[in-house]
Amino acid sequence: MKQLNLLLTALFFFLYTASHAQGAAKSVNIDSLIGLMSIEEKAGQMTQIDLGVIAEGGICNLKNPQTLNLDKLKTAIAKYHIGSILNVGCGSGTISLENWHKILATIVAENKKNSRLNIPIIYGIDAIHGANYTMGATLFPQQIGQAATWNPLLVQQLYGITAYETRASGIPWNFSPVLDLGRQPLWSRFFESFGEDVLLAKSMTKSAIRGLEGNTPNSPYAVASCMKHFLGYSMPLSGKDRTPAWISDRELREYFLPTFQMAIQQGAKTVMINSGEINGTPVHANYDILTTLLRNELGFKGVAVTDWEDVYKLVNVHHVAETKKEAVRMAIMAGIDMSMTPNDYEFTELLIQLIKEGAIPMARIDQSVKRILQLKVDMGLFNETRFNKNLYPLFGSTQHASVSYNGAAESLTLLKNKDQILPLNAAKETILVCGPAANSLNLLNGAWTHTWQGIDTRFNTPGKLTIQQAMQFQMAKTNFYYMPGCTTDSVINIEACVEAAKKVSKIIVCLGETPCTELPGNIDDLSLSEPQQQLVKALSALHKPIILVCCFNRPRIIKNIAPLADAILYAYLPGDEGGLAITDALFGKINPSGKLPFTYPANVNAFVHYDHKSSEDLDVDFSNNAYRPQFDFGFGLSYTTFEYQTFTMSTNSLGDKDSVTVSVVVKNTGSREGMEVVQLYYHDLVASITPSVKKLVAFQKIKLATQAIQTVTFTLHKNDFSFINKALKRVTENGEFELLIQNQKQSLYVH
Ligand code: BGC
């Protein structure tokens, strides 16, 4: 028997290596390959290390530009058989296209030389808003701004370009998109989310996954996406990153699961796990979430990778494992396939020991290795001629930049425009631009821009314009002043700013937040910093029109300064074309059409969402319990006006097999073309789980010429009114519902 096994192994080995040598391994027999692999090779496949481990310099202190150290690389391949590498090296920055090609080609060549089976190594990167770790790549608005466009087709285009430019760098795996619902505005990664609403976020998720994964197998323009961070990461109770979340199973399914379900339906190939804990169990050790829910219930077949060092964190942060070895066992048995270890090989060594001791069954290991190999096959990595740098002539092109501009333009959300003070006439105004975001590309881009935290200015793409630079181009020199006034958190020259403001007709204050994400982005107070508030207050003493432009990671409280402003343009983190787009919006070349994808809180202790419960609306006895945000979810003005006319329904009775067609006539009653997001909400009058006062059920963005009229139609089914009940089942309960469009209401009876 043993001899037969040996013979079979030899045969598989021959067939595999022969086909691979010819570069014809497009149809790899994964099971045969697994049959050939040693325990060490399997454990290696499940290991992902940071570039820092194989580069010149120390971990988090890499030589610049990043250069591979061939001895370290050889160790990673020949001794540890690693399956994956990530990142640009902690503490390091963006890499040139040429250097990426060199690094990746060296990895392929060394792998061929030093590994027995020549199983390709898969490289993964955080291309969060464009290929932000490749010099000169197109940088888009961050996810929160993408959601504010309410334009799924445009968002799909952004992700298509991100995939293209990531692939142009030679990288086939992108740790994006973030599918965590943005319902905790304190959270440092709020800007990485698609906002607070399940339906809008699901729609954006669909666009993101389709854009990244493409629809052609083995396309050189598609990357494997990575849904992150499964599950419940975005709702830490304290608002601080990676701190405990308290989320009931029902709420997990109602709010936090649907985006992941959508991504799986769209074919997302990988998932990254939440570094935090839910209800006392770290997700990396949670079998119920990682296996019962993700695999058995949702049917996810792809690769589950840990987040940064999260296996070790089961010991040294969460304290649910006594030793690292136990942590490895827990994570793998919970359902992890690959560990983003990422700075050493301890995980690999411990995993080998555990397999040898039988503490982790081989069947469990093979399951993970199979998923990893399948990913590599799907991404065409076994085909040695896979990379052709000539396929990407549009990398960093003006065509791609114009899509980024469109994204920024459609995200800009006009929150106030008293007496139609905007748009400004550049030829007739004298303008002072001030504030920390006025002259900073970094504040327009946020974190994940050339470096992790996005604050290093050295890597900014030459030629991209800040707000003040873009404005200057459109103004006569004598009519334009720029003065910072303050940084994001300290005063520079507020008095000089006020002096300069005396000479102008309009003051534009560009408020901002220092780029940050994850733990470095933790805050104790959502208020806008004092110096920025001081700047606005000091300028307001002049009684001249003030326009605020807000470039925030999260909705910083502006309650005290909003009344001092005549106009507020909320810009999110609009990316490299943001300066241009903001300028064009202020001067009227763009008609703003963005709508808030979150409820903008007015007070630091009042984080109530638009789809809150009736009990949160009560204002009867104590007048302190009502929902009174600064700005409502879905809100955004335009330079034109829209009138909602006839609102009709094909039927007011909806059964299991029926559908209802809802129509509304919208007219552009203003004097210029504009885009409007038609938003349909519903209210379930009575339900076994307290119903929301309203919930978004459908939306459509339309463009109307002045005085043009369009009928917008939505078709809804019973399932569109469903929710998760006490038994954790998705149900639609019979009864009366209201459908709401703007100020109009219709009743619908579901049976
Ligand atoms: C973040 C992930 C990211 C990973 C790799 C982690 O710290 O939470 O979102 O993909 O690092 O850079």
Characterization of this structure:
The chain is of the alpha/beta class and 751 residues long. It is built from 21 helices and 28 strands. Strands 13-18-17-16-14-15 form a six-stranded mixed beta sheet, with helices on both faces. It has a five-stranded parallel beta sheet with strand order 6-5-4-1-12. Helix 7 runs parallel beside helix 8, helix 7 packs antiparallel against helix 16 and helix 13 crosses helix 14. It is globular. Bound molecules: beta-D-glucopyranose (BGC). The site of beta-D-glucopyranose has 8 residues, from loops. Beta-D-glucopyranose binds next to loops.
Give short descriptive properties of this protein.
21 helices, 6-stranded mixed beta sheet, alpha/beta, 18% strand, 751 residues, 28 strands, disordered N terminus
Gist of the model:
The protein is an alpha/beta fold and 751 residues long. The chain has 21 helices and 28 strands.
